[in-house]
């Protein structure tokens, strides 16, 4: 991962980073509130050699610097703590006194600094006074020769004892800063780990690798699609509509020598937008002048008639059962060369119906009447209906929703198609997130058009699209599709 990948990971999981920072700040605040204030009293000693001549000053200075280092351990020794407790009872044991004492040297000097840390400022000061007095006596006793001569080293108090009026801990600004920084680092780490272990599809490259087929389009996410899923009216000039038109172009040139006329649109899971894409793709193809037949072959959860505002009581199921003729139930949508065959009633055996000879015969009739047949099928990972329909089509278009389907699911769906030798036309990444540059580019080429009313089914008198010698679409055809269907069933 490079820097841009890390930035994308943080931007994608910004809520996780924010949560980690908030939790860390909360913990830092709790620790700060519950920590008792601690005060520090200090005293500074000066270590020297009395009666030292000038010629011996240099060697004496080096000797004293080395000697002072050993006094830091002496200041924190058991002997000094026991002496302090014996002569200055403060309600503390020798171990407690020893734990409160600290010592340090000033580099390149003969100064020794002693500190006492306590939750009571008064007790810290009194303990420091006792320590400073007893330490001077202890050094004198340790350094005095046995012959009774004068001690060669002298320790004097030159500063203190004094106690700070402000507690040295806790430090709210410091604690909160450290807590916030720690939370930020933890949040970034979690965001990166989430990205590394997140198996959901979030880019076109991953989708192509999972399906083993070319990417034919990226349909951008459009909040307005929830209430207005079709690319008509104001949505006809949206980035989503332009992306569908680009998909239309790419789909028509997948293989110019063997173009796909019957296209099965499917997905790995439910809710990936395959039905909406089927409708919009059919509309875009009809806008380009193609005669399009749109079939709802998702016989378990049909939605196509609802999206297109069509009559849904009879449709594909009734045709396959032989109850009605396809010419009696196919419906023209709007003023475009688009015919729609809804799903009809939900049968108890969708897979058997879709794999029947009647379905194959119906597709032959539709192929004769239309230039392109778009079939909305069931999800591949849920039921086998989609595979059954895709086998009878010229190819399958696999739709995957951004951030919803993982690579394993889409790969298994593609494998289900490939295992029965279904021609993979390509894949589509639906509801993709566009960058600001891509959005601006769409807006710069956008053409404002007068709003048009949403298309609705044409009024009919008698059979909705009765088959005549001119075919479903009104153009001259080779044969009557309804009669052709009847002939093939015999």
From TrEMBL:
User: Any keyword GTP-binding?
Assistant: no
Domain of life per record: Bacteria
Q: Where is this region: Disordered?
A: 452-490
What is its membrane topology?
Multi-pass membrane protein
Membrane-spanning residues where?
Answer: 12-33
Answer whether the UniProt record assigns the keyword Magnesium to this protein: no
- Feature: compositional bias, Low complexity: 455-467
Where does it mainly reside? membrane
Q: What is its EC number?
A: 2.7.10.2
GO molecular function list:
non-membrane spanning protein tyrosine kinase activity
Classification via InterPro entries: Bact_polysacc_biosynth/exp, CobQ/CobB/MinD/ParA_Nub-bd_dom, LPS_length_determ_N, P-loop_NTPase, Wzc-like_C
Compartment list: Cell membrane
Ranges of residues in domain CobQ/CobB/MinD/ParA nucleotide binding: 263-443
Keywords associated with the record: ATP-binding, Cell membrane, Membrane, Nucleotide-binding, Transferase, Transmembrane, Transmembrane helix
Membership in a protein family: Belongs to the CpsC/CapA family.
Q: Which PANTHER family match?
A: FERRIC ENTEROBACTIN TRANSPORT PROTEIN FEPE, TYROSINE-PROTEIN KINASE
This chain belongs to the protein called: Polysaccharide biosynthesis tyrosine autokinase
């Amino acid at each position: 991962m490079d820097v841009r990948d890390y930035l994308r990971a943080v931007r994608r999981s910004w809520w996780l980073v924010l949560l980690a920072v908030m939790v860390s700040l909360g913990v830092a605040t709790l620790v700060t509130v519950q920590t008792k204030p601690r005060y520090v009293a200090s005293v500074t000693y000066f270590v020297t050699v009395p009666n030292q001549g000038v010629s011996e000053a240099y060697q004496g200075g080096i000797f004293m610097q080395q000697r002072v280092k050993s006094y830091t351990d002496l200041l924190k020794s058991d002997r000094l703590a026991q002496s302090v407790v014996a002569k200055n009872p403060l309600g503390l044991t020798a171990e407690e006194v020893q734990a409160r004492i600290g010592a340090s040297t000033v580099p390149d000097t003969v100064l020794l600094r002693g500190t006492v840390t306590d939750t009571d400022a008064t007790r810290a000061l009194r303990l420091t006074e006792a320590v400073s007095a007893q330490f001077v006596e202890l050094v004198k006793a340790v350094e005095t020769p046995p012959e009774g001569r004068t001690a060669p080293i002298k320790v004097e108090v030159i500063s203190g004892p004094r106690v700070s009026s402000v507690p040295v801990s806790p430090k709210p600004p410091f604690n909160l800063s450290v807590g916030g920084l720690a939370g930020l680092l933890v949040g970034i780490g979690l965001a990166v780990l989430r990205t590394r272990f997140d198996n959901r599809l979030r880019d076109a490259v991953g989708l192509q690798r999972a399906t083993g087929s070319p990417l034919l389009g990226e349909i951008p996410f459009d909040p307005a699609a929830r209430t207005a899923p079709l690319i008509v009216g104001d949505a006809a000039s949206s980035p989503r509509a332009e992306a569908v038109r680009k998909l239309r172009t790419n789909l028509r040139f997948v293989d110019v020598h063997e173009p796909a006329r019957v296209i099965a649109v499917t997905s790995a899971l439910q809710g990936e937008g395959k039905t909406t894409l089927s409708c919009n793709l059919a509309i875009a193809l009809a806008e380009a002048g193609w005669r399009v037949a749109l079939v709802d072959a998702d016989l378990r959860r049909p939605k196509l008639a609802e999206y297109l505002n069509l009559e849904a009581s009879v449709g594909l199921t009734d045709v396959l059962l032989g109850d009605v003729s396809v010419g009696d139930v196919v419906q023209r949508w709007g003023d475009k060369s688009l015919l729609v065959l809804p799903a009809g009633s939900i049968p108890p055996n969708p897979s058997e119906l879709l794999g029947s000879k009647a379905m194959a015969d119906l597709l032959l009739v539709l192929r004769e009447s239309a230039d392109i047949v778009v079939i909305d099928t069931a999800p591949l990972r849920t039921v086998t209906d989609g595979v059954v329909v895709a086998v009878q089509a010229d190819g399958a278009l696999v739709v995957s929703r951004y951030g919803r389907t993982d690579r394993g699911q889409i790969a298994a769906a593609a494998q289900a198609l490939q295992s029965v030798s279904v021609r993979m036309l390509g894949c589509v990444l639906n509801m993709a997130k566009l960058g600001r540059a891509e959005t601006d580019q769409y807006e710069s080429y956008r053409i404002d058009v007068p709003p048009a009313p949403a298309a609705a089914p044409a009024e009919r008198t008698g059979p909705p699209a009765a088959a005549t010698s001119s075919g479903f679409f009104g153009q001259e055809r080779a044969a009557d599709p309804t009669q052709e269907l009847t002939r093939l069933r015999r």
